[in-house]
Amino acid sequence: MKFRLGFTALAIATLAGISAASAIGFRTLHVFTDKQGGFTSAALALGPNGNLYGVTEATVFSVAPKGKFQLIHRFGNLDGVDGEWSGVVFDSAGNMFGTTQSAHGFGSGVYGTVFEIDSTGQETILHQFTPAPNGSVPLQGLTFDSLGNLYGTTSKGGLACHCGTVFRITTAGDFTLLHSFAPTEGALPWGGRLIIDHEGNLFGVTNQQGPNNCATGIGCGTIYKLDTSGLLTVLYAFQGGNDGSQPQGSLLADGSGNLYGTTFYGGGGSACSFGCGTIYKLAPDGTETVLYAFQDGSDGAFPEAGLVRDSAGNFYGVAFEGGDKLCRSGGNGCGTVFELTANGQFSVLHTFKATDGANPAGELLLSKRTLFGTTATGGGTGCGGNGCGTVFRVVL
Fold it and tell me: How many folded domains does the chain comprise?
């Protein structure tokens, strides 16, 4: 199928369209300490026991829906560190799989791992990344296909420009390099995870490079498809203006073949040097529509994470900054939780105040009309003074 790369400015919401949210119940479930690790920036996973599972810079943890915290694993030596961007996924037997972006110090020669933690808490390293050609520094989570294979990306390395790679790995540790990014295809895939359609095609985003120049000087990023033969197609190349730039969260697909996501910059928000970020839709013909452009006001700014969607077609997500500009010195704001309804109405569900968390960077988990998420900082004064982050819930 051929795609036409285009942009339409229809249905762009503005600050005038923001409404106050209703029937919201926010609660901080857990505040991380220095010893527990912090800076978690990935989506939580719902375990088979109903608990929430995630990864910090140093640990794998679980939090019960009412807030009970349990340390599952502490990384060290060559089994990896800095897994806060990846999160974990579960197989049908209750085993967890994830990635770390480095081992214990770059002097080890290991630039990331793929790990498994079984239902008893025992860790197994399935793969250790070394520099090119297979890629290094994985900054995305993993995705299962219907056959039980895992797919992911690395943010660096590869055969072309050290722009990153796409890989497949089995639960037995058999590793296959599927694609190395070229500069015109994009670079630095990170945040969120790949999605797979019913034919086995992979879809994702790159944060930088691509065919268009950006005001940031690093390229605007792309949306891509990698088919089962290994052919990569750029579905959309961001232009860096009103259409957005620097996407880094997971894509979300609907039943009609549309893709939805966020960009960190762009959208025309004048309060931010390169724009404050967008929520967008990409149609199967390659036409992009901006559904909302952030303004760095009460709505928030710089959405790092992708979106989740309920059965009524409403979208939910987080903005990394913005909201309450007085929550910390510097005036950047601590971020927001937002809703964009199916008819385009934008609402702020929660504004972070630092004491309850700050800088949400991971995608939300929607379960039974409750959103669960994490913040990378806030919640206290640990981890250098800005707090180690939190786990929170929002009841809709």
Answer: 1
